[in-house]
Design goal:
The complex is a heterodimer. Chain A is mainly α. Chain A folds into 2 domains: 60 residues, Helix Hairpins, CATH 1.10.287.110; 104 residues. Helices cover 75% and strands 0% of the residues of chain A. Chain A contains 10 helices and no strands. In chain A, helix 4 packs across helix 9, helix 6 packs antiparallel against helix 7 and helix 9 packs antiparallel against helix 10. Chain B is α+β, with helices and mostly antiparallel strands. Chain B folds into 4 domains: 295 residues, ATPase, nucleotide binding domain (Nucleotidyltransferase, domain 5), CATH 3.30.420; 78 residues, Actin, Chain A, domain 4 (Alpha-Beta Complex); 111 residues, Sandwich (Substrate Binding Domain Of DNAk, Chain A, domain 1), CATH 2.60.34; 104 residues, Up-down Bundle (Substrate Binding Domain Of Dnak, Chain:A, Domain 2). Helices cover 41% and strands 26% of the residues of chain B. Chain B has 16 helices and 30 strands. The longest helix of chain B has 45 residues. Chain B is globular and about 100 Å long. The chains are: A mainly alpha, B alpha+beta. Chains A and B meet through helix 2, helix 3 and helix 10 of A and helix 1, helix 10, strand 20, strand 24 and strand 25 of B.
């Protein structure tokens, strides 16, 4: 199978020039999009459709840094980029205390309904977690350069890979809790966005 | 290439592709005229075709004529069929109390009873599409068989498929289903009216969409889309009607809910008043009901107060689209308004507040979607090569897994076409079939999402559990419609797969409807011709009746007897359905009265001359 980096003629690196990626995506779209193959025979149309679908999927995965990382980990593990999503989630240690508090807040909300006080408490907890999430994501992206250097120099990146996996698991965990809080706040519809993003 | 296929290709290139906006309230057809998209008018110059189909005793009528007789014939006149497309009875139950026609309870696709016939929403839409096709054919003086049809961006797979089916029943090869807001962006883009990051806010008669696009170097890349396929001008009308009903009860002590005819009159009057209030601050509503005339003034403020919650309900989807696109409102360069309902000043105000900038509406909001569809048609025809639309799938696609949880295969807002492969196996020794349940939606549990179809992987070789490996490819094509293929990995053979759409028509049903449409088309044409023949007979009989009362003295007894006989013959035939007999006897009566007509003409001329002479003589004296 063609790897997604190859699709766009990019090196297999975590740091991607997004402008170049977009230019390449547009150029390939012009080449393969079914709109431009309406007059072709059935076989050619099917081939263009398949190619176009691959280009679209690859672009979606690579344009977002974190889904790019997930995909890269999948390539390293030989699982085709899907492994990182499947890690079952344990609460990260430094969050245990907060999790207990959140659990309590959620139960309180369930017991006494969404009054002003519980709403405020849940919102506060969610805000706190969202800030942690942002910090976590920046930390992940902040180590992309390190990975790329190791790949270039043939250095050992095993420890970094393990760290990435853990950080992604932490991210998935935080996302679930944030969603739970949003659901409890009755704002679930708006929050499932991040939850379902690849 | 054989010469036959070459000619096939030449034919494909040469034949015309029109763009059709199949709307909840109105529909249009457009084409590209030397690079400029234009809406095709009917023979009276009207561009909008009301999406109303009347199944009268004398045949089917579509458009303005059907709309005009709505209040007289509410049970047999279907409107807003688009809101029923791709839906099951359960989905539309709440909607039914607003609709005068009779929707039959059924387990799957919605069926509407009109007289002795039962029709599905795609068949109703097919009549609208066919009327547009005929309009285009009359305009071009040649056959039109290919079309691009627009749908709301937030339409799910079943609703898209239903639209495609409607096209097929109408005898159209639907080359592409394109999203309405993105079509609109093509029309704006063609004229370079909008570039950069644009938000298209599309509020029509029955549906709401918002799409965020990046328009750059001729590429129209949709970043995110959101919407509500059940929110539009129809809903505005309903709250207005509800308010008027209460007022009528207060003032006239009359409850009208059960009077279908009066309700339609009220609905149409309320709709018209709503439209006027987009341009005036207040308006008078006058409805002459049978028992009383209802008259009152309505102000723009009244309507705005009533519809504010509905308009505000469009803002959530806008925010979600922005979020999905990872953008803040200030990142939007242009805002484009599409759909008749955006003429309401309140709507414009709210949108401009949300995005913090003035909204565009240079292109007619009723027409811009059809114009964009014509642009897309020209792209498919190979006539435009520098523009390309990259659209997305509006809803996540997944399969049901253990415990009723959905596993997402293709997340929403993924650029289409797109593909996901998933391997399946058996869980019991010797199992030969695997059942897949495919859903669309954003919720965690299968039961909260939209069931699209069940797929049966059949004829699996009996093997120990977990041994068979079947790779299923889920492909969402450029129409946003799902195609599923299965392959046995070990042998590489295509696996047998049977599709059972949850709310759609099966292939066999559509084929049957295509066939029926020919039969009905013939009976519809016959019905029209019969009415014309009957009218003609009536006209001749009226003439003869008048002639006999004025010129009886000019006839011999024999002649009179012959005319009376012919008159009686025609009178007897006229009520029948045999067109040939009616025509024959009309001709016979005409012939029998030829001499009488001549004699009367003669006498009239003589009289005229005589009186003229008298005038002259008198004048001269």
């Amino acid at each position: 199978m063609t790897d997604y980096f190859e699709v766009f003629g990019l090196e297999r690196k975590l740091q991607v020039n997004l402008d170049a990626l977009q230019r390449s995506f547009y150029a390939l779209s012009r080449q393969y999009h079914p709109d431009f193959h309406q007059m072709a025979n059935e076989g050619e149309q099917a081939a263009a459709l398949e190619r176009s679908a691959l280009v679209n999927r690859a672009y979606r995965v690579l344009r977002d840094p974190l889904s790019r990382l997930s995909y890269m980990i999948g390539l390293e593990d030989g699982t085709g980029g899907r492994s990182a999503d499947k890690v079952r989630l344990e609460p990260p240690r430094d969050l245990l205390e907060e999790m207990l508090e959140i659990q309590e807040a959620l139960e309180e909300a369930k017991r006494s309904g969404l009054n002003a006080e519980t709403t405020e408490r849940l919102r506060g907890e969610r805000q706190n977690l969202m800030e942690r999430q942002t910090a976590n994501e920046s930390a992940i992206v902040g180590r992309f350069a390190e990975w790329d250097r190791a790949a270039e120099t043939g250095g050992d990146a095993k420890a970094l890979l393990a760290w990435f996996k853990q950080a992604l698991a932490r991210r998935a965990y935080l996302r679930t809790v944030i969603d739970d809080l949003s659901d409890a706040l009755g704002e679930g519809q708006e929050s499932d966005v991040s939850h379902r993003r690849h | 290439m054989t010469s036959a296929t070459r000619w096939e290709r030449v034919k494909r290139v040469m034949s015309r592709i029109v763009g059709i906006d199949l709307g909840t309230t109105n529909s249009l057809v457009a084409y590209l005229d030397a690079g400029v998209p234009k809406v095709i008018p009917d023979e009276e110059g009207r561009t909008l075709l009301p999406s109303v189909v009347a199944f009268t005793r004398d045949g089917v009528t579509v458009g303005e004529a059907a709309r005009r007789q709505l209040a007289r014939n509410p049970k047999r006149t279907v409107y807003s069929a688009k809101r029923l497309m791709g839906k099951g009875f359960e989905d539309v139950k709440d909607e039914l109390r607003h609709l005068p026609f009779d929707v039959q309870p059924s387990a799957e696709v919605v069926r509407i009873k009109v007289g002795e016939r039962t029709v599905t929403p795609p068949e109703v839409s097919a009549y609208v599409l066919e009327a547009l096709k005929v309009r285009a054919q009359t305009f071009f003086g040649e056959k039109v068989e290919k079309a691009v049809i627009t749908v709301p961006a937030y339409f799910n797979d079943a609703q898209r498929q239903a639209t495609k089916d409607a096209g097929r029943i109408a005898g159209l090869d639907v080359l592409r289903i394109v999203n309405e807001p993105t079509a609109a962006s093509l029309a704006y883009g063609l004229q370079r009216l909008a570039e950069g990051i644009i938000a298209v806010y599309d509020l029509g008669g029955g549906t709401f969409d918002v799409s965020i696009l990046r328009v750059k170097d001729g590429i129209f890349e949709v970043l995110a889309t959101n919407g509500n396929t059940h929110l539009g001008g129809d809903d505005f009308d309903r709250v207005l009607v509800q308010w008027l009903l209460e007022d009528i009860e207060t003032r006239h002590a009359v409850r009208m809910e059960s009077d279908a005819e009066a309700m339609q009159e009220l609905r149409l009057a309320a709709e018209a008043a709503k439209c006027r209030l987009s341009f005036e601050e207040h308006t008078w509503l006058t409805i002459p009901f049978e028992r009383f005339t209802y008259r009152r003034e309505i102000t723009r403020a009244d309507v705005e107060r009533l519809v504010t919650p509905l308009v505000d309900a469009t803002l959530g989807p806008c925010r979600m689209a922005l979020r999905d696109a990872d953008l803040t409102p200030s990142a939007i360069d242009e805002v484009v308004l599409v759909g008749g309902s955006t003429r309401m000043p309140l709507v414009r105000r709210r949108v401009e507040e949300l995005f913090g900038r003035k909204a565009h509406s240079q292109l007619n909001p009723d027409e811009v979607v059809a114009l964009g569809a014509a642009v897309q048609a020209q792209i498919l025809a190979g006539g435009i090569t520098d523009m390309l639309l990259l659209d997305v799938t509006p809803l996540s696609l997944g399969i049901e897994t253990l415990g009723g949880i959905v596993s997402v295969l293709i997340p929403r807002n993924t650029t289409i076409p797109t593909m996901a492969k998933e391997a399946f196996t058996t869980s019991v020794d010797g199992q030969t079939t695997v059942d897949l349940h495919v859903l669309q939606g954003e919720r965690e549990l299968a039961k909260d999402n939209r069931s699209l179809a069940r797929f049966d992987l059949a004829d699996i070789d009996p093997m120990p559990a977990g041994m068979p490996k079947i790779e299923v490819t889920f492909l969402i094509d450029a129409n946003g419609i799902l195609q599923v293929q299965a392959k046995e990995i070990r042998t590489g053979k295509a696996a047998s797969i049977e599709v059972r759409p949850t709310y759609g028509l099966s292939e066999a049903e559509v084929a049957q409807m295509v066939e029926d449409s020919y039969a009905y088309a013939e009976s519809d044409v016959n019905a029209r011709l019969l009415i014309e023949t009957q009218t003609e007979a009536e006209t001749v009989m009226n003439h003869v009746r008048r002639a006999l009362s004025q010129g009886a003295d000019l006839l011999s007894a024999e002649e009179r007897a012959r005319i009376d006989a012919a008159f009686k013959d025609l009178s007897a035939a006229r009520q029948g359905t045999d067109r040939d007999v009616i025509r024959e006897r009309t001709v016979a009566l005409n012939r029998a009265t030829e001499r009488l007509a001549d004699a009367m003409m003669d006498r009239a001329l003589k009289d005229a001359l005589a009186s003229k002479r008298a005038d002259t003589i008198l004048g001269a004296s």
